[in-house]
């Protein structure tokens, strides 16, 4: 069983809207800022995607069988890292919430060695503070013929004073676009498998 971080909500108390993982994670970052701002620098929003927007993840609620992967165009998780270790908060997994990073990674990402190159995952790691300040979405990516493909959250769109929509910059895995740091799976595992010093 994973240890729990007292200032982060239980899964049942999280703000959650299906298929709006980027906003669900933004709300978790906001929760930390409101209730324990001194911990914000230990928190990260992690976008998972690739050039083809085909990233397989295992143990997902959306799978008819969690032992089979779901291929997302992108997914976003919340990661907390301190001197003790690292925890993953994924509102779309069947795994425990939170879950230790190593166990989550081994069951959710498995290995790129079993995948064709088109399915290799890349990770844009964005500090929570930066994410709260810079992320914006007008939810237009969920519109088709003027209708939402999935019902949007019931709160206003997340915007900054300068921008109403930059979601594509976060999903992009080009190192010269967006904010944060883009990593391959090996780099990502190395970065978060070690405790924060």
From TrEMBL:
InterPro entries: N_Gln_amidohydro_ab_roll_sf, NTAQ1, Prot_N_Gln_amidohydro_ab_roll. The keyword Cell membrane does not apply. Keywords: Hydrolase. Coiled coil: none annotated. Residues 16-192 form the Protein N-terminal glutamine amidohydrolase alpha beta roll domain. It comes from the Eukaryota. It holds the Pfam family Nt_Gln_amidase. It is an enzyme of class 3 (hydrolase). Its EC number is 3.5.1.122. It catalyses: N-terminal L-glutaminyl-[protein] + H2O = N-terminal L-glutamyl-[protein] + NH4(+). Belongs to the NTAQ1 family. Mediates the side-chain deamidation of N-terminal glutamine residues to glutamate, an important step in N-end rule pathway of protein degradation. Conversion of the resulting N-terminal glutamine to glutamate renders the protein susceptible to arginylation, polyubiquitination and degradation as specified by the N-end rule. Does not act on substrates with internal or C-terminal glutamine and does not act on non-glutamine residues in any position. PANTHER family: PROTEIN N-TERMINAL GLUTAMINE AMIDOHYDROLASE (PTHR13035:SF0). Monomer. This is Protein N-terminal glutamine amidohydrolase. It comes from Priapulus caudatus.
């Amino acid at each position: 069983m994973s240890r729990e971080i007292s200032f982060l909500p239980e899964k049942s108390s999280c703000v959650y809207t299906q298929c709006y993982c980027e906003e669900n994670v933004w709300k978790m970052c906001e929760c930390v800022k409101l209730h324990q701002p001194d911990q914000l620098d230990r928190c990260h929003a992690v976008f998972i995607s690739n050039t083809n927007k085909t990233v397989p993840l295992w143990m997902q609620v959306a799978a008819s069988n969690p032992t089979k992967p779901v291929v997302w165009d992108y997914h976003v998780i919340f990661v907390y890292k301190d001197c003790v270790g690292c925890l993953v908060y994924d509102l779309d997994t069947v795994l425990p919430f939170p879950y230790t990073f190593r166990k989550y990674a081994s069951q959710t990402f498995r290995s790129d060695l079993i995948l064709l190159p088109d399915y290799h995952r890349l990770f844009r790691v964005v500090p929570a503070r930066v994410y709260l300040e810079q992320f914006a979405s007008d939810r237009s990516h969920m519109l088709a013929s003027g209708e939402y493909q999935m019902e949007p959250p019931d709160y206003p769109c997340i915007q900054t004073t300068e921008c109403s929509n930059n979601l594509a910059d976060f999903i992009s895995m080009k190192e010269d676009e967006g904010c944060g740091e883009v990593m391959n799976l090996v780099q990502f595992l190395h970065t978060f498998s070690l405790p924060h010093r």
